[in-house]
């Protein structure tokens, strides 16, 4: 099970047949395990990592520190879930430290993000304050390092 | 000029020693030159991991440089490294060596092999080796003045050396048996039973056993048995190991020899005059590898295992019959269906399909009829290479 998930996490397009060979199970056994993992949401979703900048698409990201006022009974959950509903919000995490919610926001322009923060996020009743950090350069994301230095090549033949 | 001086001045001198002059060039060299000159070659001919040394190991080495640890170490190597190694060998293989006087850190296992051959051989003495063999085995033995005695191993016996085949070759000049399992080029492993038989021979004829266990960590479907762990064999064997394959550290050139003090001392004597010590930076990296590298090893082994299953299955599917190699990162399929020699096969395959494999003959007579395919490369490379090889085999298949 763990082996199969590890393979899929690395490459979601690996076929059941390929996985079966790799782990030494039958195709139907592999399919059954994957189905089960999909069903119980161990596999949450299959996605593709795309470098949109290759298409010349403008993309602006910002990390927003949000300070919240906790609510009776539900703590930060209700307001956090509310914030997650905005399509601009890419990721959101409750964090320890000087602020409460770390929100990663994606937009087409800085202006778009600025208006999201000033018009949508900041005015929310339980939001005390926000600090917006625009991302300047991506070095690593989802475990993948971007713009690696030139790869060192192995010799074509070695003993 | 006197008459004698005149005579001497007329001598035509060959500046190269006969021993080296007579040594055939490595069968790999030709393919290296050929493959280097071509573009878009998928190489299954690279005998090293495709992983980069794990970051924490590289970092330990650079940190040691920043701190200025740039001096010689003791000839035997840093005591901390020998201590970690002793712990590691005990933990993984149940063999105990005294870090103070039974371990020598070397510049890779290549140096270790050379040192051992020179330390034990008198001119004309013989060392038994399995055939196919790692290309350096006979060369090191010859350079040390000895005679390699290859024992053919076969696909039918999963390329494992058998004591029954060794015994008839033992004579008064035999000094040692050199085994290397898991094996390069075949990927073969050897059973405990056969190791016991070899130990029995070593005992019966008072022979040394040199066990090259550089691929010890790359064993799939079973566990590796360290030769010196066999009862009574620690006193009569020399263990060789290293970090190149297990921790993806080929370029660091760091390995070790472990044996009884009586054996380690003469080996260290040569090392002290010829190498002085292994590079300090690499030794620092090796300490880190031993202390915190276990997760990396396991992760890499899992990945190799997946590739192994794919390559063995696909080779058999395209008609190149391949035994299930259970160690290292090599598959060793038979190419007999094509009727070609291994050199012809490798050369044609490279020219026509741009896939590099190593002809089995490069590893000894018993390697003829086979090619070595290294699966330490990405799955997509393996699949593409096998697709091309499939096309090639159907084109040239006899009958």
Summarize the structure.
The complex is a heterodimer of chains A (159) and B (399). With 159 residues, chain A is an alpha+beta fold. Chain A has helices spanning 2-10, 16-23, 27-39, 77-84, 110-121; strands spanning 60-68, 89-94, 101-107, 127-134, 140-141, 144-145.
Structure description:
The complex is a heterodimer of chains A (159) and B (399). Chain A is α+β, with helices and mostly antiparallel strands. Chain A has helices spanning 2-10, 16-23, 27-39, 77-84, 110-121, and strands spanning 60-68, 89-94, 101-107, 127-134, 140-141, 144-145. In chain A, the strands form two sheets. A four-stranded antiparallel β-sheet of chain A has the order 2-3-1-4. The longest helix of chain A has 13 residues, at 27-39. Chain A is extended and about 60 Å long. Chain B has helices at residues 3-9, 18-21, 29-36, 55-66, 79-93, 108-120, 136-143, 163-166, 192-205, 261-274, 280-292, 294-317, 342-353, 379-396, and strands at residues 42-43, 103-106, 126-131, 147-152, 174-179, 208-212, 237-242, 255-258, 330-331, 355-356, 358-359, 371-374. Chain B has a seven-stranded mixed β-sheet with strand order 2-8-7-6-5-3-4, with helices on both faces. A three-stranded antiparallel β-sheet of chain B has the order 9-12-11. The longest helix of chain B is centred in the C-terminal third of the chain and has 24 residues, at 294-317. The model of chain B has no long low-confidence stretch (mean pLDDT 96). At the A-B interface, helix 1 and helix 2 of A face helix 3 and helix 12 of B.
Secondary-structure topology with pairs:
The complex is a heterodimer of chains A (159) and B (399).
Chain A: H1 2-10, H2 16-23, H3 27-39, E1 60-68, H4 77-84, E2 89-94, E3 101-107, H5 110-121, E4 127-134, E5 140-141, E6 144-145
Antiparallel strand pairs in A: 1-3, 1-4, 2-3, 5-6
Helix pairs in contact in A: 2-3
Chain B: H1 3-9, H2 18-21, H3 29-36, E1 42-43, H4 55-66, H5 79-93, E2 103-106, H6 108-120, E3 126-131, H7 136-143, E4 147-152, H8 163-166, E5 174-179, H9 192-205, E6 208-212, E7 237-242, E8 255-258, H10 261-274, H11 280-292, H12 294-317, E9 330-331, H13 342-353, E10 355-356, E11 358-359, E12 371-374, H14 379-396
